[in-house]
Amino acid sequence: MQTLDLSILETARAEKMQKLEKQFQDVFIAHSSGELFICPFCNYSSRKNSKGSSKIFQNKFFKCFHCGIWRRI
What we know:
Layout: H1 6-30, E1 36-37, E2 54-57, E3 61-64, E4 70-72
Antiparallel strand pairs: 1-2, 2-3, 3-4
């Protein structure tokens, strides 16, 4: 069994978080809290509700009800 160094995992995690923060910054600037919008990860919008399946809550949380992604801002 092979193992990775902890430093490799930490750098990969840091790069992924920076990438997510850049994606979220665009979303948060464009939408206010409580507003439904299309998720930037799954891009889901139903036929009944064209607004989207994601929501930003007032306590600084982002939640997509379709793909289940949940992040704290």
